[in-house]
Structures are given as structure tokens and as C-alpha cells.
Amino acid sequence: MKDFSGKVAVVTGAGSGIGEAIAERLWAGGAHVVLADIDEGRARAVAARIDSKGASTLALTADVSDAKAVEEMVAHTLRRFGALHLAINNAGFPGQREVSTGAYALDEWRRVLATNLDGIFHGLRFEIPAIQASGGGAILNMSSVAGLVGVEGEPAYVAAKHGIIGLTRAAALEYAAKGIRVNAIAPGFIATPEILAASEEERAALAALHPMNRLGEPREVAELAAFLLSDKAAFITGSVHVIDGGYSAR
Ligand code: NAD
């Protein structure tokens, strides 16, 4: 299980859901983990839960839509742990739902793209030089099945999640021979706090979108992330890894 000993990882959106599960898995694997979130209280609570001594975690406030904040997140990581090897650009949110493109609010489009797509670019922009200076590593960007197929009523989220896949492929090509692997994960609906807070009926309807007729678990996504970030995945770059109970096979 100690497959990440000696590695330093940064996880954005680590204060909840999938990011929390990935941070916990990497920490259990022996990594030093920086938990970044727009909500500092959340990041701190997760860090305290998984590492009560605080010796190998650092909780930071960082809004990934703000390039300066992401630059500082990486700088703070280097000051605290002296290197960066693994980065998981996970922070995101769906924004307004059930609003068609012809009626979608212009400022909502900007708000959703700013975190879900600009945020991934900001991560890559500052993580890549730090990972190169640390001798190489791997990056994961969190897309979604909404990055592979259209979903009605959430055009900005769908565009951002498709854009993440293009950006992942472009960066992967640029750094394939330079010691940095870059991949994307595309989950179906995962049982994260927001989804668990929905009514039983709504959850059943979401589960039914998947041929397995259930939601995914954050720890299932974290296991895929751990594999892709590990040396076992040394020949994997520039690809999208679907974890969706069959959702996108239909
Ligand atoms: P979540 O809401 O449980 O956690 C997201 C975390 O990101 C929160 O702690 C939030 O405070 C933080 N965050 C939001 N905006 C931020 C910003 N600008 N800067 C830094 N942190 C920010 O969500 P989740 O379901 O775990 O989602 C994590 C990622 O997985 C997202 O990119 C999401 O689009 C993607 N995803 C989720 C699902 C799902 O079903 N839950 C499915 C596919 C993809």
C-alpha cells in the first residue's frame, strides 16, 4: 500500500467528495499531501481527520479560478515539502442545471468555466515546472462522463469537461518524453455529499442512468487515481479513464 513513499502530492478540491478520497488514498500510500480547497475549513478538517499529527499534510486555501492563488499553492507546497511529484486537478462544480443553452445566463457560463476549465489550466501551468524541477511525476485532471457525451441543461459544465480532455491530451504530448504523464478521469455519478443529500427518488433516478444501477463510491475513483499516479501506470499518458458503471457504454 505504501506505493507513494517519498512523493509529494497536491489535490485541489480536497475538502470534500472525490478529492477528499484521493487525498486520503495518497496519504495512506505514504505521500506527503497538500489539500487545497476554496473552503479552508473543509480542507483543514479533512487533513486533521486523515493525519491527526499533521506531519505529512498541509491544508491550504486556494481558489483555482485565480491563477495567482494556484501559483502560491504550488510555491507553498515547495516551501513546505521541498518538491512536487503528483498533482490532481479535481476542484469543480456543475453550476446551474436544467437550463438549456438558449437561456443559459452569461455570467454563469463564465463562473463555471473559470473553475472547471481555467482552474485546470492554472494547475497545469504552475504544477508542470515544479514537477519538472522535482525530477518528473504524474498529473490527473478530473473530467466526467459529461466530458465524453452531451448532457442536456448544463452546457457550461459539459463544455468545460470536454475541454479538460483536450487540454490533458495536449499537455501529455508536450511532456511525454520529459518525465511527466498527464491523464484524465471521467466518472459517472459518484455518491458525494451533494448527491447523497438529494431525495431517495432523485438518487434512484441517478443510479438508474448507470447499467450497474448504482452510484459510484469516492474510494472507487480514488483507487483508479492511485493506479494512474503510480509507477504501475508508467506507459499511460494522454488518455481518459472512464469509471461509470457502464453509463457511457449505452
Ligand atoms: P464536492 O462538491 O464534494 O467537492 C468539490 C470540492 O471542490 C469542494 O470541497 C469545494 O469547496 C471545492 N471547490 C469548488 N470550487 C473550487 C475552486 N474554485 N477552487 C478550489 N476548490 C474549489 O464535489 P465532487 O463531486 O467530489 O467533485 C469533484 C470533481 O469531480 C469535480 O471536478 C466534479 O466535476 C467531478 N465529478 C464529480 C462527479 C460526481 O458525481 N460527484 C461526477 C463526475 C465528475
From TrEMBL:
InterPro entries: KR_dom (IPR057326), NAD(P)-bd_dom_sf (IPR036291), Sc_DH/Rdtase_CS (IPR020904), SDR_fam (IPR002347). Coiled coil: none annotated. Keywords: NAD, Oxidoreductase. It is an enzyme of class 1 (oxidoreductase). GO terms for molecular function: oxidoreductase activity. Residues 7-188 form the Ketoreductase domain. Belongs to the short-chain dehydrogenases/reductases (SDR) family. Pfam families: adh_short_C2. This is 2,5-dichloro-2,5-cyclohexadiene-1,4-diol dehydrogenase. Its EC number is 1.1.1.-.
